[in-house]
Amino acid sequence: MRIIDSHTHLMDEPFQYLEGMAVDAFIELMDEAAIDVSVIFTLVGLIRDFQKHNDRLAAVVAANPGRLVGLGSVNPWYGAEAVREVERCFTELGFSGLKLHPWFTGFLVNSTIMDGICEIAADFGRPIFLHTGTPPGSAPLQVGNLADRHPEVVFVMAHLGLPDLWWEAVAAAKRHPNIYMETAGAHSLSIRRAVEILGSERVLFGSDAPFGGRNNVFFQRDKIHLLNFSEDDTANVMGRNAARVFDIHAVEETR
Amino acid sequence: MIVDAHCHIGETPHFRQTADDLLAQMDTNGIDRAVICGSGRHIVVENEEGNRYIAEAVRKYPDRFYGFASVNPWYGDKAVAELRRAVEDGLVGLKLHPSMQGYPAHDPIIEPVVAAAIELDLPIYIHSGTPVFSLPLQIVELALQYPEGKFIMGHMGGADFYVDVPSSAHRAENVFYETSLTCHVGYVDEIILQAGAQRVIFGSDSPTSQQAAELLKIRLAKLTDVERVGVLGTNFLKLLPGQLREDEQ
Description:
The complex is a heterodimer of chains A (255) and B (249). Chain A is 45% helix and 12% strand. Chain A is of the alpha/beta class. The model of chain A has no long low-confidence stretch (mean pLDDT 95). In chain B, 55% of the residues are buried.
């Protein structure tokens, strides 16, 4: 079974109180946890200097072919500059999608500043991965509202709405077929219900590494195994869905 | 001895768990004892019915369960009377859920119930992490108002409101941190550094999370063997009068 971790961060420098993790150590951790591919994005690039941080990410991804898949990030408040950078992410940098974080960056996920970005994502057929679960900017039904406006874009809800808003996440995904779920930080009940209600094709495993420390990867991974899904459902959640959503076969073929 | 300091029996629109379901899960995971709380409407409106349901399970399995009562502070004097009745009936702690019951955790509405719990020497478990009513800093504020109270911050801020937990840990020594539903192993590592392992308490929130998953989180956390014994049981038992012999304190 191929394991794809859909939610990781390039954090090879200290960030706030976190010490970070060098890229080599991160790849070793993936080996130890039997994770084949990690979908990775910047952190500071969500706020400022996104061109610089996207360039760095692209270099790290290029240096680890077959192991890392990059998603670009921008701060949508930069308007036309952010929209231009999204286009550059898909052309020049070869990223498989976007990662945005409404509460961390400070915008409402369903505000109009998202429209230009969503239009580029639709043109290139690339998914947008979004932090969810935190009011007032990252609530799952707000993502539903955005997904309703941009039905041609695939949105992946990180954290499955978190413990407080997971039922909103399930409701939004039930109504909008272009919404997928990711499991980092989500509790067992929400993951089980999402698979039951939406089907295992709509749920993607993620760890949020290196957030939560080295050992957290094993916790996030084994939390899924402890749910005892069927072999087929487990394979969907642990890797097949991410391969499809982020077009990871195509990434490998071009290398 | 492993004690799971936070489980539910009863039902909500999303789950149903009986005392026997929980016992089977405890046996599978090597958990000796568990705190049981009510669920759904038993927390919000039908407090007496819920507390009797918990007390019945405790009477059936007295060596396996500690029962926590829920009363809704909006019932005023009736809530205090129900808490006293439930304690007479064998329950040993108070569980409050500000977001389900509808008040900020430090609101004056809570005061008579908290004062009664302190008089009865009960640990006070408060759900945390759900904005706008169950926020960690509201619980710290309450704990500062009642320095003699023993407050357990359920889920230690839960998901993103964990951000306020480590930075406020030094402000109220009478706040203890229960680990269920906190998103990452690293969050447990961080609160151990900031509050000390003796203020950290293992819980699962079964059936919302799984005991096996929550135990794994504690096994993966940065703890010495002695500290881990504390987190998995003795730190909580110290909050219950008469549960530990003097040499275990």
